[in-house]
Design brief:
Strand content: 15-25%
Number of helices: 6
Largest sheet: 2 strands, antiparallel
Shape: rod-shaped
Order of helices and strands: HHHEEHEEHH
Radius of gyration: 21 Å
Length: 144
């Protein structure tokens, strides 16, 4: 899973601020992505605790920040799946009727649960990026 956030400052702002704006933006972006990670963990389906625990961040620099997951099935949860056949030797699952075994099952498909999309909408809708940039500018003494 990957979400890219791009922050741009005008040349005028860079001159007026008189500070290392990339450093300030990077700091604000780091805060935002940590908050985004937390939101995504809360938005992820509860039934899949492994998914929640696998959600983290990768922050190689100002140009690229990623929300990451260590499990591959996040895509199926995010986007859903069509009905399909699963084969294996043997397949096993447990439900309210007990433990079952089979070599082939007809999976009914999975309804989409767009938890990553909800995370992105909350980051944008709650103005997290702008609030964090503002907080860092106040911290750096650039604005009050």
């Amino acid at each position: 899973m990957s979400m890219t956030i791009k922050v741009e400052f005008s040349e005028h702002f860079k001159k007026v601020a008189g500070a290392d704006i990339e450093k300030i933006a990077d700091k604000a972006l780091q805060r935002t992505i940590v908050e985004g990670e937390s939101i995504c963990q809360r938005e992820a389906p509860y039934r899949y605790g492994g998914l929640r625990r696998s959600i983290g961040t990768s922050h190689p620099g100002i140009a690229h920040v990623c929300l990451t997951s260590g499990v591959k099935y996040w895509r199926v949860l995010q986007y859903g799946s069509a009905p399909h056949v699963i084969t294996g030797d043997p397949l096993a699952w447990e439900d309210e009727d007990g433990v079952h075994f089979a070599r082939k099952v007809n999976h009914p498909g999975t309804k989409a649960n767009p938890f990553v999309t909800r995370t992105a909408k909350r980051i944008v809708g709650d103005n997290l990026i702008q609030m964090n940039i503002n907080d860092v500018l106040v911290q750096e003494g650039i604005i009050r």
